Structures are given as structure tokens and as C-alpha cells.
Amino acid sequence: xxxxxxxxxxxxxxxxxxxxxxxxxxxxxxxxxxxxxxxxxxxxxxxxxxxxxxxxxxxxxxxxxxxxxxxxxxxxxxxxxxxxxxxxxxxxxxxxxxxxxxxxxxxxxxxxxxxxxxxxxxxxxxxxxxxxxxxxxxxxxxxxxxxxxxxxxxxxxxxxxxxxxxxxxxxxxxxxxxxxxxxxxxxxxxxxxxxxxxxxxxxxxxxxxxxxxxxxxxxxxxxxxxxxxxxxxxxxxxxxxxxxxxxxxxxxxxxxxxxxxxxxxxxxxxxxxxxxxxxxxxxxxxxxxxxxxxxxxxxxxxxxxxxxxxxxxxxxxxxxxxxxxxxxxxxxxxxxxxxxxxxxxxxxxxxxxxxxxxxxxxxxxxxxxxxxxxxxxxxxxxxxxxxxxxxxxxxxxxxxxxxxxxxxxxxxxxxxxxxxxxxxxxxxxxxxxxxxx
Length: 437
What we know:
Elements: H1 3-26, E1 30-34, H2 54-57, E2 69-72, E3 79-83, E4 105-109, E5 122-125, H3 130-136, E6 138-140, H4 143-154, H5 158-183, H6 188-199, E7 211-214, E8 236-245, E9 248-257, H7 263-281, H8 289-306, H9 314-319, H10 322-326, E10 373-376, E11 379-381, H11 384-391, H12 401-407, E12 412-414, E13 417-421, E14 426-428, H13 429-436
Parallel strand pairs: 1-5, 3-4, 5-6
Antiparallel strand pairs: 1-2, 2-3, 7-8, 8-9, 10-13, 11-12, 13-14
Helix pairs in contact: 1-4, 1-5, 5-6, 5-13, 7-8
């Protein structure tokens, strides 16, 4: 058995213990976890790409399984029922033969109904309605249990960290190919296709829709289109793209200056690389992520002042909202089975930790602790709808609008690495994977 197999089985054993304790505390004898089912487009017979429910994938590294069930009972092996009907339109699901499957009782079934269970106190979690849960005699999605399970996904096992590191390695191969395509003069679609080929994945397997933004498109935070033709001038490229490994998601962003970029953009990009390294270096147990996010804004203000983009003080730039016009998103988020993974906005007791009023987009609000995996992704953009209100405000004279116009064709900068918090500090999974490629 390989070391990776050993880690995976240890992960499953820890899950069994954790679930048994939670179910006992909740007075639940048996828990069904439903993988989910694809939903067709309205009025159509086509389905978008399917991804199984996160708590199902936490146990079973097969995110493509639909209509399948897990039955968890204390002191018993988990039962995995895989929906595998006879089908000549599609290839039916197969019984897994990997080492991790030894931890389960596995059944293949042509029936999408849940496996039978004689337990008295039952619950079910997943995308079901009350009528379905009622027919099972089960409580549907009990909030306290779901909160506890979400918190259980926040801290990753050694197996999960290994999967994330592998996902980073594959994603980085895609980013290298995207950069090569950009430097060769390719357009957005061809850059995207180069990413898919090098990262060895089909589009439907991506953990999220890749963002491939040339020039001013890099200033659209979740840019969703690909131009078919290459632009006449190449100012900049931003690629935010990942990879999924055994259900776990890499989430990496890179920005590159093109031959048409002004010198100030290339200098800002270099400064942003330095800033990202400094923010990563600060990651350690006990660090308040909200404060680290605030540190990003003060550093961004200093960077913009140093480059002549703004003329006011650092404090005025932050408190006056200038830096948030240049960077409206949060510093990062929890990462795992979901790209924006669960558990990042509640404390250890399950009480909510809402985002600050000044930063509603911040997706991680709790202090860092060992086992957490987070993204660190500072940004700086020229987004007209956010900057335009500043032209008529009291701080308008504190912004060099001619420099803003020079930067506008470049869109923006975002740099994103995946960081695991350790007992004494952190490991940069993206940098470690880079060393292995």
C-alpha cells in the first residue's frame, strides 16, 4: 500500500470517529448523505456539469457520482450505495477498486432510492425536500449538525493537504502553458484551451469556470467570456484557474504584463508580487484574517502612493474608500472540496462571524489555525464603475487620473496562492508544487 493510500485510509478513519461523536451528541442513530442529482436546464433535456455534495465527497473521492448515498452509523462501516443502472446512453458508474474503498461496504444499485435502515432516530443531509425526508422517516438537514460538519471540513487532514498539493501541481502546468500562449500572441479562447491541455482536464471537470482575461477584461473580477480573436495589442493577461484532485480544488491566479503594458503597470505588478509574499509570510496560527485583510489595504494604499496613482495619506486612502475602489474583494477564503469552502465565517462554537460592514465580500473572518487551507490573493484593478464615483467626490484631486487612464487597458492585477497553516507557521502549497514541476 502506498503512503498516499495510508493517508487516505487514516482520513476516513478520523471521519468515522468524528461523525460517530457528532451523531451520538445529536441523538442520531443513522445519517444518510445524498450525493445529489443533476438538474436540467429549464425546458431542455441538457444538464450542466454535476458535482456531488461536499459532505459526500469528504468521504468519497468521486465528485461525479449522482443519485448515490452514504449511510453513516456509529460503530459500523459506512455503506456506500452507488447508482449504476443499466444504460446504453451513458457509461454506468463502476465499483471502485482503490485502497480507500476497503473502508466501505459498497453496493451497486439500479435504484436511486436510499438504502434501507432500521435505526430509530434518523437524519438526512443533502439536496432533498421535506417530502422525501419524511418518506425516509428522517430529519432533513438539521442545522446544528450541518454547522458542526462544516466546521469539521475547515481543518484538513494530511490526505486532504496532499490532494490539494497535487491539484496545485496540475494547475501550475496549465498556468505555464497559458503564459506561453499569451506570449505567442494567442487570444483568450486559445489560452484557455492551452490551459486545459497542459493541466490534463476537460472543461466540465474544472473546479470553477476559468477566468482568462486579456487587457481590460482582467479588471472584471469573474470575467466569463473568451474572445475568439487575439487583440491587436497585448497589455496584460490575468488567469484565475484551478484543478480538482480526488475532489479537492486548487485555486491559483497569475497576472502577466504584455509588451504593450506601460512601465507603471509592470512596476505595480512587481510591487504586488512583493506584497503577496509579505502577506503569505504573515500567515500563522492565531493571526486574525480580518486584520490581515486590513493590512492588505494599508499596503495597497502605500503601493499606490509610491507609484503616484494617489496623492493622499495612507490613512485617508483606506478610510476614504479609495483602496476598496481599487480592490473590492477579500484577501482570500477557505479552500478544499469547495473552492470557497465551508466553515470560514463561524467560530469554534458555531456562532456566526459576519464580514465587516466595510468588506462585505470577505469570505473568511475567523483567525487562522493549524490545518486550515486558505488562499491569499491581493488585487489592484481599474474598474470604471467603482472609480467613477471618486471623480466627483472630495478625494478626486488626490487621484492622478492620467495614470489611471494609462493603467485602464491592462485591467488589473491579482495574484493567488494556496496556503496551509501549520503548528508553527505555514506552507505555501503553490510554491511547493512549483518546485516539483
